[in-house]
Write a structure and sequence with these properties.
2 domains, Rossmann fold, seven-stranded mixed sheet, alpha/beta, Four Helix Bundle (Hemerythrin (Met), subunit A), 10 helices, 332 residues
Length: 332
């Protein structure tokens, strides 16, 4: 189990570990209102699809604590949270569940709403454990694995999705070491995954995103585990920008490529990944990473936060219900 805890409910407030400051500084944001959580989600202070859903559920609980809380005000709070980030499905799944719970009430009960948020949190933690067991069971002998972005305790309510599999595999001595891609432009792999692995004493090697082909061709990686932000019925999966390229390289080098995600990531309304809305973020995330670039005039920047990996490049999709093999037909 990881000792890292990114969210804490304490005395009617939500404490959020500010992931923008990691690994250099462990700073906590005190969220007293739903709006505080919404801004934390938008700014990437809290990130990772499952954790965003959990944070949003707690944000609804914060809104319910208002003396003037009504069904209308709760609906407004939920709508505000819905527009924070468009791609990850766990956010919408959690808010739908909270909305249904509220609709079943004659009057707003803050205690009941908080109980539902805590249940969502606990269910995700349990799902992480099961995904870890299912994923680790796929590895017969010690292997070196590659992961992308951050899918651990900082992205979920438990040990993680893909990184949860890696944690479990390391404890079972079937994961020898981890190669973590830096994950530009925000560096979730370099800043967060490496930090998590170091905290858990898991051997980790940081590589630049453009080193993956060289890494695979040299035979240094035997398997890839990644997370997902939204999965369509046919198994197409959106994840952090750059994931699709890693999947294509794994396919070229005959390396198994696994997507690890809880059921709350699956969007049954979408036939394929072509229907997934891809968030585009502030160009400053790229420009500010290169000293002096902001002074160069006339440079255009394209900054999609996610891409979609076609199902043909995915060896299996691991959920808390088991290991799903192609052809993918979800729900199932």
């Amino acid at each position: 189990m990881s000792k890292i805890v990114p969210l804490k409910w304490l005395n009617g407030e939500l404490l959020i570990l500010d992931q923008r400051k990691l690994p250099g500084q462990e700073k906590w944001i005190v969220a007293k209102k739903a709006e505080h959580v919404a801004k934390a989600i938008e700014s990437l202070a809290v990130r990772g699809a499952p954790l965003i859903g959990i944070a949003a559920a707690y944000a609804v609980a914060l809104a319910a604590q208002s003396r003037n809380a009504t069904h209308a005000s709760m609906s407004d709070a939920i709508e505000r949270l819905r527009v924070t980030r468009p791609t990850g499905y766990n956010l919408f799944w959690a808010l739908k569940r909270m909305a249904e719970r509220i609709e079943s009430m004659k009057s707003i009960s803050a205690q009941t709403i908080l109980r539902e948020a805590r249940l969502i949190h606990r269910e995700d933690a349990d799902a992480c454990i099961r995904m870890g067991e299912f994923g680790a069971a796929l590895i017969a002998k010690p292997e070196s694995v590659l992961t992308y972005c951050n899918t651990g305790a900082l992205a979920t309510g438990g040990i993680g999705t893909a990184l949860g599999v890696i944690r479990t595999g390391y404890n079972k001595k079937v994961v020898r070491e981890v190669f973590a891609c830096e994950t530009r432009p925000v560096g979730q792999g370099a800043r967060l995954t490496v930090w998590e692995c170091a905290n858990d004493h898991i051997p980790v090697t940081l590589v630049c995103d453009n080193m993956v082909a060289a890494l695979m061709s040299a035979g240094k990686v035997q398997r890839v585990f990644v997370g997902a932000d939204r999965i369509a019925r046919n198994g197409d999966a959106s994840n952090k920008i750059g994931t699709c390229g890693v999947a294509m390289l794994a396919h070229q080098f005959n390396i198994p490529f696994h997507v690890v995600a809880p059921s709350s990531t699956f969007d049954s309304k979408l036939k394929s990944g072509n229907e997934i809305i891809i968030e585009e973020r502030n160009p400053a995330e790229i420009v500010n990473a290169t000293p002096g670039l902001a002074k160069v005039k006339g440079v255009k920047v394209w900054n999609p936060a996610f891409d979609v990996t076609p199902n043909k490049f995915i060896t299996s999709i691991i959920t808390e219900k088991g290991v799903h093999l192609p052809p993918y037909r979800f729900p199932g």
